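Page 47, continued from p. 46.
Same chain as before, 422 aa.
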Amino acid sequence: MKKQVVTDKKSDLIESFAEFARTKNIDRATMMGVLVDVFKSMIRKMYNTDENFEIIVNVDKGDIQAFRERTVVEDGEVEDESRQIPLSEALKIDSDYEIGDDLAEEVSFEDFGRRMVTTAKQTLMQRIKELEKTGIFNMYKELTGEIIIGEVYQVWRNEILVMHENNEIILPREHQIPKDRYKKGDPIRAVVDSVDLNNGNPKVIISRTSPVFLERLFEQEVPEIYDGLITIKKIVREPGERAKVAVESYDDRIDPVGACVGMKGARIHGIVRELRNENIDVINFTNNDQLFIQRALSPAKVSSIELNETNKRAKVFLKADQVSLAIGKNGLNIRLASRLSGFEIDVFREEDQDEEDVDLDEFSDEIEEWVLDAFKKTGCDTAKSVLRLSVEDIERRTDLDTETIEEVLSILRQEFEEEFSS
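Result:
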């Protein structure tokens, strides 16, 4: 097959497209693929087919050529103008052509007309924008669960706009640590939480409150975790307040808790600062539920535990001075321990066996039975076990209203006027 190549100056269409694609970091192969698709579309509009057209892409030069292939036939015997060319026209191109030869003639952009070329430019720009969006989506999809560092671009009431590699991503308020305070230009570190397409546009959400963010920070600070010698089994957080991290070592020579904390807390201090002084309890994981609950309630010292495996509930008994530690400020410690262990934990003061007490049933003439039952369901079956709880503790454990609770406490105090006088 002979090819008659008409050397034209490189089209403005290719030049403008190539420049645009370079600024959007589109690789050459993809760029040329789009050019081929658009060029084929132009050919179909002009010739009603692209089957007998060959498109050649030169990726290195960033150039593209299209050749129309036709068979040379006798003058007057042309049956299909798109696939056949009369000998007289073929000879004008090259005097060596004979009947039956295949002729490939380069298609010039000038053949298409200004309007079609303009339409093609618009199509190319649209396609490259779509490619850019797809590229951004795929990039952040692969980064999901990984930490990135961006720069605060704009601070709004419900979200912060962050620039990362010239892409705009979002840190919503619910993914911000309550103590976070940022202004434009500040560096910001967060984990890629989710990536979605919103009307064809990639929407990237980053998070500083996700347990995954804390996990990645540990991986960065603790080489043993990064190398797989220590595994993080579970993380629960109240962002900016407290977190509990259960870790396990696959090497008996490595203390997982000590490795995570570091000498004099050197490793964990950096994480704590990043999380706005969030208190972090690192706990040695175990499959022994009782021991794990005991460790999860740290820093409180547990006296004994009664487990109900079926209902996933645990009654934890502690000395009087340990109860407040187990519950924590606003019930935070016990709440996190419950989430970490998977058991609903109820805390009880350990009773002194020599101590005088009165069974709750003894007050059935003064307190309605359904109210007494509400207390019994929490493990409080004596007067003193109820009196040693605060109103807030009782409200958390039962569905009783404040007025009813205070009325019950008043009745019970009368039995122990000196010890529990209000």
